[in-house]
Design a protein that fits this description.
Number of helices: 5
Oligomer: single chain
Strand content: 25-35%
Number of strands: 7
CATH topology: Aminopeptidase
Order of helices and strands: EHHHEEEHEHEE
Shape: globular
Helix content: 25-40%
Strand order of the largest sheet: 1-2-3-4-5-7-6
Largest sheet: 7 strands, mixed
Radius of gyration: 16 Å
Number of domains: 1
């Protein structure tokens, strides 16, 4: 069984390269299904570079939980502590799951669920009452996944990049401390 072979750990700075490549792979597989256009290429270079991951790994507000199979990165959750959203109650102590990525061959094996559970525990340990994330409305499997994990849809939001608008949904879960 694959779940017996998955190892989870917190990422460290040497993981920046593998996280960058894994994120690029999953991002393009999910969002560039019709090919690569300049805005998508620039977004990948800007937001998913090794340097960007190294900077986040060095910042204590960011935490990454990595899933590995046979010492190969197959997924990760990126948690940002003390981050709120306009759709959350004012003054709520919140954290964000900025990205939850699992390579396609490893989907439906419980890896995403376990990464999310571990991100929830990390957020709660840092005092967060709520954990939130956004999911693109065009990613129906992700929308269903978050609802199945107990997240409630708090409303719509818009992700902007280079003037392009992408409709997203904001999902929120109350954490148990």
């Amino acid at each position: 069984m694959l779940t017996d072979k998955v190892h989870y750990r917190l990422a460290t700075e040497p993981d920046a390269l593998c996280l960058s490549v894994l994120a690029t792979h999953v991002f393009l597989d999910t969002y560039a299904t019709e090919g690569i256009r300049p805005a998508v290429a620039r977004e990948v270079r800007e937001l998913l570079s090794e340097e960007t991951f190294a900077a986040r790994l060095a910042d204590l507000r960011h935490a990454f939980v990595v899933a590995e199979v046979a010492a190969h990165h197959v997924g990760f959750a990126h948690l940002v502590h003390d981050r709120t959203h306009e759709l959350l109650p004012p003054g709520a102590r919140a954290a964000e799951v900025s990205r939850l990525y699992v390579q396609r061959p490893f989907l439906r094996n419980g890896i995403g669920k376990e990464l999310l559970v571990r991100a929830e525990a990390l957020a709660a340990a840092e005092g967060a009452e709520l954990l939130w994330l956004t999911a693109w409305t065009g990613n129906a499997p992700a929308l269903r996944f978050y609802e199945a994990q107990g997240y409630r849809d708090a409303g719509g939001s818009v992700y902007l990049f280079e003037g392009d608008r992408y409709e997203t949904r904001v999902f929120v879960k109350r954490l148990h401390r």
